Fold this sequence. Notes:
Elements: E1 5-6, E2 24-29, E3 32-37, H1 55-68, E4 76-81, E5 84-90, E6 98-101, H2 102-107, H3 128-137, H4 147-161, E7 172-176, E8 179-182, H5 198-205, H6 208-216, H7 232-238, H8 242-254, H9 257-265, E9 270-271, E10 274-275, H10 279-307
Parallel strand pairs: 1-4
Antiparallel strand pairs: 2-3, 3-5, 4-5, 6-7, 7-8, 9-10
Amino acid sequence: MLKLVNFEPCPDSGRFYGGDAGRKVGVNWEGEDWMLKFPGPTKELAGSVPSYTSAPLSEFLGSQIYAMHGIDVHETKLGIREGKLVCACKDFEAGHGRLVEFRELKNSMSDDETGFSGSPSDGRNVVLADVRATIYRHPWLNRIPGTIERFWDMFIVDSFIRNVDRNNTNWGILIDGEHTELAPVYDNGSSLYNKRTPKQIHQHLHDEKLLNQDVLDVRSCYLDDRGHHIAPLKYIASGQDEECNKALARFISSYDQAQLDALFDSLPSEYAGVHVADDEYREYHKRILTQRYEQVLLPAYHKIDVQR
């Protein structure tokens, strides 16, 4: 069973963090700086949603799945603070330089660059072809080995865990003087249906049609050349991008069903009186991920592999 951490007695670190996805508090735990991500309130959202998101649990699980596939990801712990379930994310800037987001890097592109659908320096632009071109052409990105591989690894894993909020602001590089390196993958809290209620999970778990809809309901912030949102699973299955195909092959080769099931089975029902996960939560997500792998990603891999 997963051991959670009691962060209640931890002193504040004096570190503060940005972003829009809920409250974040810096603490010092065992002599190191960690950022605690709290569940965000949903009172401004319409429809039947829980009073708080399960984003801390999604952040932890999504990050653990990244790690299972051998992808460098920020270290995370699950615990409690102020009587709430939180995800602690180790501060990866300490000793490694300053985080520079992809948006900031794109903002520095010369507008004399050709072949972009819009202004090359538009950091908000999420047209997939322009993002890809920036990775290849930006002098600070193309000097780092594995940048294009990292992007497509994120594209595949985010599709698998249904992380609907990977954009230009939540991935980047670390700069320390002349040294540059890819930052670990971070910000996975918008995965695994983090606003779904227990009632909805129960309903979808026991309705095969709704469950199958959830398997295929994967979205992306990236746009095609016409400005339409790309459907990630369809894009992956199309086999149209060789780097995406390679990332899919890496994912398939590192997929471990037993390890995935064990991750969800390790979640306790509660810790120190705070709810963590019930049986239906565990079963729902195991079934969604397994079916997404077996019905979409694995057949796409076999189809692409045959066509080579």
